[in-house]
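pinging the channel bc i need a second pair of eyes. not urgent but kinda urgent?? the chain im working w is below, pasted from the shared doc
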Amino acid sequence: MKLTFYGAAQKVAGSMFLLEFEDGYQALIDCGSEVEGNPRLTEEEFRYGNFPFDASRVNVVILTHAHIDHSGQIPNLYQDGFEGQVLCTSPTMDLTEVLLYDAASLNARVVKSVEKSHRKSKKWKSKETQGLYLNRQVEEAMENFVPIAFEQRFKFKDDGFVTFYPAGHLLGAAHVVLEVKEGGEWKKIGFSGDIGRKNFTLLVDPKPIPQVDYLVMESTYGQRNHEDSGDPAEILGEIIQAACVDVKGRLIVPAFSVGRTQCLLYTLNRLYYDKGISPIKVFTDSPLAKASTKIYEKYRNRLNKEAQEFFEETDSLFDFENLHYLESNKESQLVSTHAEPCIIISSSGMIKGGRVEYHIEKNIENPYATILMVGYANEDSVGGKLLSGEQRQLHIRNKKLEVNAKIKKTDIFSGHGDRDDLLAFAKIQKPELLKKLFLVHGDLNAMLNFKQILNESGYEDVELPARYQTFEL
């Protein structure tokens, strides 16, 4: 059996791992897009199309969860000849669908722009639109998704089984364990997916996986622990008090539409219901967030006990007085200058594209505005620059603007487990029985730090795979 790392190798995004079995069967675990756009492949790599391997030879995709850096390349896999099924949990299937259609909508705008720029040219062939799938490709891909229940051992090939275990992190997210018989011997390979946190807003705790022979494990927070702890409603309440009550200002929260926004809305609902605070107007500015919130409501029986009890008491997880969903761009732009104190939740979380850029542009110079960062942001994104605390001026939407707004941050809504959570997950495995542990989905410094911690904990054979590196298992 061979395992090749085609993505998330010494970097955070683009999870994609190919297992090739002795009988020729191939399983692709995750098929994600890069956060920064998919890397430019060399001419040699392009011989296969959108992937550096032959998609037509892949037999099955096993998807850990819906986030686009794990699912975003699936339509391209079908375009390049893949004819198999995608196995995942039911919530992952539904969330992936709305995410892929959203990506297709963005792709359509890019394609239209490229075609317009080449309108006067009768002959052009550009790689600018390579990999930009549209609605039709998403529809074709979704027809092949097969939902699998948690902790149900599912036979995906002769002498091959897969089991999904709750991972927290996102609705439907899973750790994956494959059991395969080769040469008369059973081998177990675990894939952590993205590891969630214990006692996290809305979601169930990550569940331990059984002992495996090989473990592929994420390491996003391998270098640090979360700073904030306690009740998210109290933390958010204090920020709202300072931003919208004490100074009658505006609170802008850049947040990813799937996962983070639902945590914020649920926490606001709790805050207004439990604490008796008069609801301040909340504008959710993302059609994708509205669609994914409906999916969270659909699968509320998969959420944690606290969320289910809150629903039983209030008959609502996310809907509360003064909550408004914005649909059109016109509505979005009008809200940026709303006269009364308000909260605007908008994507993207990194302030790199999306409607939130307009809200930041209109409010970054306003000393009565507060920008609350609630998640990870790349250093080169607007969000990353704001988090650094060193920026006095920013270029946003081709404008140079002064940073007069208050910048605050909290990691209480981060869906990723921190260093201690990662170590607890790894320690489920007995060092003497684990043949090899692969660290993925983290920057190199985080991986090196976490590798040292693992070595000190008795895990001697820890690998940091490079992109395209293959291992015999």
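so The longest helix spans residues 90-117. and The radius of gyration is 23 Å. — does that match what u expected or am i reading it wrong
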